[in-house]
Amino acid sequence: MNILIIGMGNMGETYARSLLHSRIVDKEHLFLLEKSPEKGKLLEEKNLGTVHPSPGPYIKEADLIILAVKPQDTDALFPMIKEFLDPDRVLLSIMAGVSIERIAKDLGTLKVIRAMPNLPAQVGMGMTVYTSSKEVTRLELVTVQNILNATGKAIYVNKESLIDAATAISGSGPAYVFYFMESMITAALELGFGRSESELLAFQTFRGAIELVNKNDLSGEEWIKRVASRGGTTEAALKIFEKEKLNEHIKKGMEAAFQRAKELSE
Q1: Distance, CA of 53 to CA of 188 (rounded, Å)
Q2: Which of 7, 49, 138, 156 fits 68 for a cystine, CB–CB 3.0-4.6 Å?
Q3: Can you list the domains of the chain with their CATH numbers?
Q4: pLDDT of 208-261, one tens digit each?
Q5: Calpha distance 260→8 (Å, rounded)
Q6: Are 159 and 131 in contact (CB under 8 A)?
Q7: Which spans in the chain are helix H?
């Protein structure tokens, strides 16, 4: 199987490394299209695959093409690669806000898979939501799911609108986690801890909480009850969260992210 990755930014390189690490493809069958001469030279030094500076006939050899460029680059890119594509070429897009309909129309292809990964894919802990045009076969979907799973976890959805919803939840989600962590670190600093101590307190607390959730069947609400004893310190904090309607603010933030994702898709 030959795979071409177009765009070797953070996510493009993440997929290249994941594909090689999971042995889905070897270096001889992995093509990388990167227009930047400087970045292309670095990629050659890293020996991740065959680096190409511009589109060419080699594109026809790719069984799967991963589109990992910035959405604003598509106007220039699509006309350059269209001549090397046919209707049955399988395309996997990880570009935010670019619809399956537009990709299919602009590139003259039928088999398009659209995915929304997130930043932890860089360390093999990503969460990806994906969907596809009806022309994509079950076997092709399984192949792509294996590729996505190489960067973490992946779930398939039937409605493309859920890609925008996933953007608001898991796509932007790491930033929400970092925001809360930074708030905890700031609180720890104000309570008298040093910077490194404050960071360790926050980071390890998140890491430990996630491990508890992963290794047990209790819901988040049940875990809260286990930590928050009546009249205790945790309950005091939770009462402030409830008074300030923190839960509602979080949901409103995700709704704003969702609306913005829809605007970008349009």
Answers
A1: 49
A2: 7
A3: 3-159 (3.40.50.720), 173-265 (1.10.3730.10)
A4: 999 999 999 999 999 999 999 999 999 999 999 999 999 999 999 999 999 998
A5: 26
A6: yes
A7: 10-21, 37-46, 74-82, 100-107, 138-149, 161-166, 173-190, 195-214, 220-227, 233-243, 246-265
